[in-house]
């Protein structure tokens, strides 16, 4: 179903590298600290692998979930190790805030808003598609529990998802940024990528 | 089944059974529902993801994935092992992990619909529900012990409780 060619995947990687580059700049301004975000790999993975990549069904992760709305519709799931998310929240709140607290989750939402909002804005700019990001929802819980509901609405159509591995500040562990186009939107994406290469 | 294996693990959209003194578990249930059907000697567990197999657009339907097909499959799994005693059920899961997004995508509250579909399917099979730990907003890992017919439910903030 997600039969993107190598060229199309490269184009998506290019868009994503620029999008995350802009996101890192926005984050740097907010945190008053230089942030870097690269995209070392773009891949298509099976739903079954998503939970395994997040460390298994019981591993505790932070997930930020939102939708791309407009002529191109997709779900975005951003998955971070829980400790990494805690570090970001502490920087955002300027205190040793516990991630479980309401302020922690709202800070994480804010972080997701910046990353995904900037990514989607870049995507819209480059593809000339009038798309926007929905409000994000964040949750910290077992990987199986938080990732499955995000994938379920699409699992009746197929079982693959686009994975953009992202690297924060050259850290060892990669965060996962998943892009799940809705069924009718795969063709939209393909058309747009075709237009970009001409 | 390996005799030395004390715990049988069931993956997403999977189904399996265990015999005393083994236990059977499934982890990271969010909106999914873990359905245990058991008799005095055997327990079968399915990790149900969606309410209705009619939702699938693919022809090759995995019966354990959908509530309406998983429950009959559990009953059959028990019958196939030669157990015909009175069947009972315990269910857990069906949480709403993203309540903030209910307006964005109603499908995200699949948990409530999963629980309703599992209840309906169990009623159709005349299998009474002895314990139901469903709803809420937390992920769950469950394990059933046929030896005393107890179900443990673990959440990351609530610890482990037995039902």
Automatic annotation (TrEMBL), chain A:
The keyword Hydrolase applies. SUPFAM superfamilies: CheC-like. One of its GO terms (biological process) is chemotaxis. Gene3D superfamilies: CheC-like. Keywords: Chemotaxis, Hydrolase. InterPro entries: CheC, CheC-like_sf, CheX-like_dom, CheZ_family_phosphatases. Residues 65-143 form the Chemotaxis phosphatase CheX-like domain. Residues 9-42 form the CheC-like protein domain. GO terms for molecular function: hydrolase activity. PANTHER family: PROTEIN PHOSPHATASE CHEZ. This is Chemotaxis protein CheC. The lineage of its organism: Bacteria, Bacillati, Bacillota, Bacilli, Bacillales.
UniProtKB/TrEMBL annotation, chain B:
Pfam families: CheD. Keywords: Chemotaxis, Hydrolase. It catalyses: L-glutaminyl-[protein] + H2O = L-glutamyl-[protein] + NH4(+). One of its GO terms (molecular function) is protein-glutamine glutaminase activity. Its EC number is 3.5.1.44. One of its GO terms (biological process) is chemotaxis. Probably deamidates glutamine residues to glutamate on methyl-accepting chemotaxis receptors (MCPs), playing an important role in chemotaxis. PANTHER family: CHEMORECEPTOR GLUTAMINE DEAMIDASE CHED-RELATED (PTHR35147). Belongs to the CheD family. This is Probable chemoreceptor glutamine deamidase CheD. It comes from Natribacillus halophilus. The gene is cheD.
